[in-house]
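Lecture notes, part 5. Sequence design as translation. It can be helpful to think of inverse folding as translation between two languages: the language of shapes and the language of residues. The source text, in structure tokens, appears below.
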């Protein structure tokens, strides 16, 4: 037997479907780099709001995007996006970003500036000796890594997801973001053909992780 192959795990799903918790636990279990692309869109949104570049001002938006310089900082097993050398603050989980992020994420040019950066995380993972990466978002299995070794799509009833967010003490418009993310033209939220669809409404986090891990483990042994 040769050494284990480098694996790419793509996890997509709606808001609060369990992507981040599941990805973090898989990253620990299999020594993978964890890449939360939702945090990238949140950071970018926060940066543009701070620069007073409204999504409605297309000329200002297209003018601002090329000036943004991206780099990566590792925090444990997670890849953090730095913009102009700066990490995101707590405000990326706050109400203003929640309300705006799906609007910025619907702009094709905004998605385009993050595309190569996201694919470049494979290099980051290899450089730091990870066995692979687990990347979560909305379009990972459809656009970023359509040839990923594993593509999962997490479902959960919207009421259950809203309950999970509320249990975290966070105010979030789960259903509204899903509506915007599903209806946009570029890279909409949808389970891509061939992806493994998992409904977690009645599953615990541990049960979800075990289901995904059962698929991944044989490839790494
Ligand atoms: O954590 P939660 O599922 O609520 O959201 P998130 O993963 O942090 O993503 C925030 C927003 O970023 C989403 O509602 C999408 O509008 C956008 N996003 C995207 O368009 N494409 C991705 N690959 C990841 C996030
Ligand atoms: O990343 P995403 O927004 O998709 O979801 P998350 O932040 O991982 O999960 C939202 C919350 O739901 C967390 O507090 C999880 O612990 C919880 N969760 C759960 O209760 N049951 C699951 N099967 C999955 C997640």
């Amino acid at each position: 037997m040769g050494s284990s192959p480098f694996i790419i795990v793509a996890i997509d799903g709606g808001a609060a479907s369990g992507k981040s918790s599941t990805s973090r636990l898989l990253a620990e279990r299999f020594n993978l780099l964890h890449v939360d692309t939702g945090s990238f869109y949140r950071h970018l949104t926060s940066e543009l709001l701070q620069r007073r570049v409204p999504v409605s001002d297309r000329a200002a938006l297209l003018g601002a995007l090329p000036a943004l310089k991206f780099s990566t900082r590792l925090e444990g097993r997670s890849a953090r996006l730095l913009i102009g050398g700066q990490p995101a603050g707590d405000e990326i989980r706050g109400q203003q970003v929640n309300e705006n992020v799906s609007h910025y994420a619907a702009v094709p040019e905004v998605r385009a500036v993050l595309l190569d950066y996201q694919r470049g995380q494979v290099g980051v993972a290899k450089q730091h000796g990870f066995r692979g990466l687990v990347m979560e978002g909305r379009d990972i299995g459809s656009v970023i890594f359509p040839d990923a070794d594993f593509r999962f799509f997490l479902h959960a009833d919207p009421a259950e997801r809203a309950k999970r967010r509320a249990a975290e003490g966070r105010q979030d418009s789960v259903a509204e973001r899903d509506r915007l993310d599903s209806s946009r033209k570029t890279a909409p939220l949808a389970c891509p053909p061939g992806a493994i669809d998992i409904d977690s409404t009645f599953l615990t986090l541990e049960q979800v992780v075990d289901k995904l891990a059962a698929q991944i483990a044989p490839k790494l042994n």
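The translated text above is only one of many valid answers, since several sequences can fold into similar shapes. Residues 15-16, 19-20, 37-39, 41-42, 101-102, 105, 137-139, 177, 181 surround cytidine-5'-diphosphate (ligand 1) (CB under 6 Å).
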